[in-house]
Amino acid sequence: MTTTMTRSFTPRFAQRKHHAVTRAALIVAFWIVAALLAAAVHQRIDVISPVASVIIKVAAILAMAAAFIRLAASETTLDQALLAGTTWVLLCIATEITVTTMSGRPWFALLGSPANGGIRCVLLIAWILAPALFIRSRE
Predict the structure, then answer these.
(1) Cα torsion at 56, 66, 36, 60 (round to 10°)?
(2) Coil, strand, or helix at residue 57?
(3) Is residue 70 a contact partner of residue 14, using CB atoms and an 8 Å limit?
(4) pLDDT (tens digit, 9 = 90+) per residue, 81-92?
(5) Is 79 domain-assigned?
(6) Exposed, middle or buried: residue 33 (CB in 10 Å: 0-12, 13-18, 19+)?
(7) Rounded Cα gap, residues 33 and 91, in angstroms
(8) Cα–Cα distance, 115 to 118 (Å, whole number)
(9) Is 0.70 topped by the overall pTM?
(10) In the structure, what pLDDT confidence band is assigned to residue 28 with cuts at 50, 70 and 90?
(11) Residue 31 falls within a domain, yes or no?
(12) Span 108-115, mean pLDDT?
């Protein structure tokens, strides 16, 4: 008697349907890690090379988006992934406004300075689209 065992490469946690609150918490948790990475890159590399800083920030955002989809939302749809990305951008905007208000000086570590529109656009697009790049079902 032979049996065939199949093993999914997707973690079990990612395969489960999550409650809306759990899903929201996971979106925020993965954003926090991505935002901390982006802020650290901004602090250390932006002064040396703004272009290198943006490239590394985008790589960090993509890495966290891939981890988010792989570990927490493997069965997500395109709409849900874009909602997660939009949430990430809104969290970035809220964080930059809050830090600027509390510190009394401009802080643009997550989205880039408005003075450099090209870099800002690249980062905005990265935050929004990153989760959608890693989904499997495009319904």
Answers:
(1) 0
(2) helix
(3) yes
(4) 999 999 999 999
(5) yes
(6) middle
(7) 12
(8) 9
(9) yes
(10) very high
(11) yes
(12) 93
Alpha helices in the chain (DSSP H): 12-15, 20-45, 50-72, 78-103, 117-129
Rounded Cα–Cα distance for residues 31 and 67 (Å): 11
The string over 65-93, giving b where at least 16 C-beta atoms fall within 10 Å of a residue's C-beta and e elsewhere, is beebbeebbbebeeebbbbbbebbbebbe
Work out how many domains the chain is built from and give that number: 1
- The helix/strand/coil state of 73 is coil
Residue 116 lies in a domain: yes
- What domain range includes position 109? 20-134
Instruction: Give residue for tokens 């927490």.
Output: 72
Q: For 63-80, how does the pLDDT look when each residue is reduced to its tens digit (9 = 90+)?
A: 999 999 999 888 888 999
